[in-house]
Amino acid sequence: MIKLGAVYVLAGLVFGAFAVLSAMDRNNRKRFGNAAFWALVAASFLAGDYLGDLGNGVLVLALALIAGLGLLGLGEPATTSREERQALAERFGEKLFIPALTLPVVVAFGVLVLKPATIGGAPLLDPKQATLISLALAAVIAVGVGLILLRQPLMSPLQEGRRLMDTVGWAALLPQMLAALGAVFAIAGVGELIGQLVTSYIPMDARLTAVAVYCLGTAGFTMIMGNAFAAFPVMTAGIGLPILIKQFGGDPAVVASIGMLSGFCGTLMTPLAANFNLVPAALLELPDRYAVIKAQIPTALPLLIANVILMYVLAF
Amino acid sequence: MLTLLGVAAVVVGFAIRLNPLLVVVIAAFITGLAAGLSPVEVLKAFGKAFNENRFVSAAYLILPVIGVVERAGLQERARTLIGRFKGVSVGPFLIVYLAFRQITSALGLTSIAGHAQSIRPMVAPMAEGAVEARTGPLNAETRQATRAMASATDNIGLFFGEDIFIAIGSILLMVGFLATAGITIDPIHLSIWAIPTAIVAFLIHGGRLLVFDRKLRARAGA
């Protein structure tokens, strides 16, 4: 069975290569900052399970300090110029799309064919992580297709990967850090506390008020926690279940489903959902790190109100 | 109540644009200390959770191939390709992408597209190319607005499609949560009730994309 561990080893080796190449990049004034940062990420992937909790804690602290002290620069691997790319684009034509489209094809193959497949009774891919394993597999195959089809230099995947990784920079680690913060919040009982505050100070005798508080509360709470999965259980235990379902007799499927989707509206509006909102802004080289969130708010707000109305109409 | 200081630290830290990695670490310490943990215990809890969530960062494995195709001119190709279809405007183009993302996500294929593998190398350059073909070279502001809109469209398509698939994480979470409360529910019912919101999301965001398109054209015409 292929497990997540194999993906981690691969990721560790790739980040290790980014670190070495960063250290050798004389165009980057802060090259040793980048090298140390990606080396720590490599260490986390390769040896995280052997470092112990405290060791991992120190590793995270070091990552945050490198980023916080501004020690990360932008690597400048030798690459093709704009004019060369224009010429290459003319020469290769639609062939250029093939490696990029290999990704979705292999991922779909992994999820639809490999995931249910078994060898001698054991699943071929760890079922819990089949998507991520498929994605890693797709990445490797697509690199091979790209190198052969487009006749690119052998080092180009690592050098170009490093260029993009440096473009994302510290934001790359933010989603994982926020997930860890969520765990600390859970230990401290932050969610329950906020849930209690909402439920004990807002009167919910009217059905519409209760629906509105539940939907808006789940969205707001998601914005604070960065994740609808953290907000949903707290708000549903506090309002959805006792008031909407038990007291007013709402349909549990409608309440839960639209409640979760209200949380997703919150996800669109918070920098704490970094992988959806901040990482893309970095990837697209947008100077305003909140540009994607700003583009989403005018959709998220009316949709949130629509959710209140839908739940009010459909659940009762 | 003191434990909420950590939440306040996050809000303030992000608002004044401190480095977010530092903000997160500081917020973890404030929260943990307020909850009665020692600094070492906070560091341990944080490190443990960081290690357990490595899968979040493993997805960057797709960057090397994206870099390779960019090196060979994919963005340029995507831009000129869309320019050849004179009838394609940015609004309808992104509406088609929105529908594609919603439908494939609803079938459980959430990872076949995304910011790194489709928006940066293909969708954003095509959106820019579509604007360019109609209004001439883009200024920085228009270019950034177009890119941000392309990313926003990907998120919205994903979020309001995936919940229609019965085996997605959020549905399993809801089923499990309701089960502990003594309510047995078939996942398919949760999926079905995600459809009305998905339709409204398509209408609202699709409408915004048309308005966005018209605004860009009006700006270019003026």
Task: Describe what you observe in this structure.
The complex is a heterodimer of chains A (316) and B (222). In chain A, 73% of the residues lie in helices and 1% in strands. Chain A is mainly α. Chain A folds into 3 domains: 65 residues, no CATH class; 89 residues, no CATH class; 126 residues. Chain A has a two-stranded antiparallel sheet. In chain A, a hairpin with a 2-residue loop joins strand 1 and strand 2. In chain A, helix 11 runs antiparallel to helix 12. The termini of chain A are far apart. Chain B is mostly helical and 222 residues long. Chain B has 2 domains: 52 residues, no CATH class; 158 residues. In chain B, helix 7 packs parallel to helix 9. Chain B starts with a helix and ends with a helix. The chains are: A mainly alpha (316), B mainly alpha (222). At the A-B interface, helix 1, helix 2, helix 3, helix 4 and helix 5 of A face helix 1, helix 2, helix 3, helix 4 and helix 5 of B.
Q: Which regions of chain B contain 5 or more consecutive residues with pLDDT less than 50? A: none
| Sequence of secondary-structure elements of chain A | HHHHHEEHHHHHHHHH
Number of helices of chain A: 14
In terms of DSSP E residues, the strand content of chain A is under 5%
Give the beta-strand count of chain A. 2
Tally of domains of chain B: 2
Q: How many domain units of chain A?
A: 3
Shape of chain A: globular
Strand order of the largest sheet of chain A: 1-2
Series of secondary-structure elements of chain B, N-terminal to C-terminal: HHHHHHHHHHHH
Largest sheet: number of strands, sense, barrel closure of chain A? 2 strands, antiparallel
- What kind of sheet is the major sheet of chain B? none
Q: Terminal Cα separation of chain B, in Å?
A: 55 Å
Integer-rounded radius of gyration of chain A: 23 Å
Q: What does the average pLDDT of chain A come to?
A: 92
Mean pLDDT across all amino acids of chain B: 92
Query: How many strands appear in the DSSP assignment of chain B?
Result: 0
Structural class of chain A: mainly alpha
